[in-house]
Hints:
The chain is an alpha/beta fold. Helices cover 32% and strands 25% of the residues. It has five helices and seven strands, in the order αβαβαββαβαββ. Helix 4 packs parallel to helix 5. The protein is globular and about 40 Å long.
Amino acid sequence: MDKIIEFAHKLLKEKLKKTDVAIDMTLGNGYDSLFLAPLVEKVYAFDIQEQAIIQAKQTLKDVHNVIYIHQGHENVDKYVFQKVKGVIFNLGYLPKGSKQICTTAKTTLIALKKAIRLLDVGGICVLVFYPGHREGKIEAQEVGEYLKTLDQKEFDIIKYEFINQINMPPFLIALERLKP
Ligand SMILES: C[S@@+](CC[C@H](N)C(=O)[O-])C[C@H]1O[C@@H](n2cnc3c(N)ncnc32)[C@H](O)[C@@H]1O
């Protein structure tokens, strides 16, 4: 079976075309952008940490269609003014970085609502949650509750999780826009 990130990438790959635009809401070390970049025309990539941007530029040194935005993803509407077909939120903290600097329910919800407005019909938004740490657990609960309120006529929303793993493993929620 696909691991969580593999499944996230598979869902995005199925939908994305070379003329599409995608957003990486949490650039981190740049591996999700590295996956997305060859599939689309352009990737907008956000991170609040300079360390992440520097590391991602190294990961993406041969890639030329990633737009780096050293800003919180809650400001996505100030940087992206076009419809997008793919969005990824790989939440939590930078691997090997400070665990204090992580995504939070409050800002993730703001960013998600804005991302949903930017998402084109047929577009996919995937979120990978890490409920094994305190902030991640709150984030998973609050964002999960919000997603349950979205109209089923407008969005298909699925959850993918390994129900027999211990210690609150990561899980995925993906939504597809069905209507404008
Ligand atoms: C799990 S890492 C992302 C992994 C990354 N996508 C990769 O492929 O390596 C989460 C990242 O989210 C960033 N982050 C935290 N809060 C953020 C915010 N409000 N806006 C954008 N990025 C944020 C952290 O700095 C961290 O680098």
